[in-house]
Specification:
This protein has strands spanning about 20-25, 30-35, 60-65, 70-80, 90, 100-105, 110-115, 120-125, 130, 145. The chain has about 150 residues and is mostly beta strands.
Length: about 150
């Protein structure tokens, strides 16, 4: 966004990268891909990656492009449980299309992990319209988002 009401709708060719090869991917128990792009990425600083076990209660944010939105920032979340060896569960406000999004520690801005799966996004109203499923902040009654 260039302002609160103006989206960036075109990019210079120098900002477009193409997949050269798939280094790793998982689509069954997790949902991610690691790719090599066609050239060195310039003029961008990589985000720091967190390498320690993330603590329950750690504040989180996620940025992504779910369900056709240009960009969605979802803060106010935290780690709810961290008892699995390969992932932790959080109360992130995400939708389909957020899979693969970096999940950031809201305090340090380090990447804590990538979103791999979550709760059902929509339900059908009495009138037949799709409406967002609303979950308690604690995650009670909903499947949490796995990172």
């Amino acid at each position: 966004m260039t302002s609160a009401s103006t989206a960036v709708v075109s990019f210079p060719a120098s900002e477009v990268y193409f997949c050269q090869s798939i280094i790793a991917r998982e689509q069954s128990s997790s949902d991610y891909a690691v790719v090599s792009v066609d050239r060195v990425v310039t003029n961008h600083i990589p985000v720091p990656l967190q390498s320690n076990l993330v603590a329950t209660g750690t504040p989180l944010v996620v940025i992504g492009h779910p369900v056709g939105l240009p960009r969605k920032y979802a803060g106010g979340a935290s780690v709810i449980t961290n008892s699995q060896p390969a992932f932790f569960a959080a109360n992130l406000d995400t939708y389909g299309g957020n899979s693969g999004s970096a999940v950031f520690n809201a305090d340090t801005l380090e990447v804590e992990g990538i979103l791999v799966r979550g709760h059902q996004d929509f339900t059908t109203s009495n009138g037949g319209c799709l409406v967002s499923v609303v979950c308690a902040q604690s995650g009670d009654g909903c499947r949490l988002e796995d990172v």
